[in-house]
Amino acid sequence: LDPADAPALLTPDQIRDLHARGWDIGSHSMTHRDLSTLTEAECLADLRESRDLLSDLLGAAVTTLAYPFGKHAPHVRRAAERAGYTLAVALPDGPEEAGRFAVP
């Protein structure tokens, strides 16, 4: 999207307010790229940066992830676990084995 057409994002204060009201704030990556097209090292860096930024903002550990576009692969799931997440949500194109890092 052209930035002028992009939807508004939450402000840091709005994110903290939702968290204070009991909402679980999870990561959606730092760059919103298809993580399955990146190397494991690139995924790890992206996911750590997003998790660290949100954790610092909230003063609490962020442990959940929703993969951009719902796409993942074995190296993406390994990177998510190494980055400190405890579960990740996916949007599978078809049947796949579910797990902590592939929650349908």
What does it look like?
- With about 100 residues, this protein is mostly helical.
- The mean pLDDT is about 95.
- Strand 1, helix 3 and strand 2 form a beta-alpha-beta unit.
- The protein has helices at about 10-20, 40-60, 75-80, and strands at about 65, 85-90.
- It has a two-stranded parallel ribbon with strand order 1-2.
- The two termini are about 25 Å apart.
List the SSEs and their pairings:
Elements: H1 12-20, H2 40-58, E1 64-66, H3 74-82, E2 87-89
Poorly predicted segments: none
Distance between the termini: 27 Å
- What's the main sheet like? 2 strands, parallel
Judged by helices, strands and strand pairing, the structural class is: mainly alpha
Q: Kindly report the average pLDDT value.
A: 94
Q: What is the rounded Rg?
A: 14 Å
The sequence of SSEs as H and E is HHEHE
